[in-house]
Design a protein that fits this description.
This protein has a single domain, classed as Ribbon (Dihydroorotate dehydrogenase B (pyrk subunit), domain 3), CATH 2.10.240.10. Helices cover 26% and strands 22% of the residues. The chain is built from two helices and four strands; from the N terminus they run αβββαβ. The protein has a two-stranded antiparallel ribbon with strand order 1-4. A two-stranded antiparallel sheet has the order 2-3. It is elongated. It starts with a helix and ends in a 6-residue tail after the last strand.
Length: 65
Amino acid sequence: SCGPQAMLKALCEIGLKNGIDTQLSLEEHMACGLGACLGCVVLTKSGHKTVCKDGPVFTEGELIW
């Protein structure tokens, strides 16, 4: 899924409740597109990741809301 964070969070909750694996395409400002500026960092269970370099697609189980 792709869209605003509130919608993505709601979709994750629905997916987890119904046993559906969910993949999310995050929309963040990507100033450099290389991960150098850290402008698109998101918090995951394995630490901070950049949307431009490590994503933009993450599974619902990776993200910490």
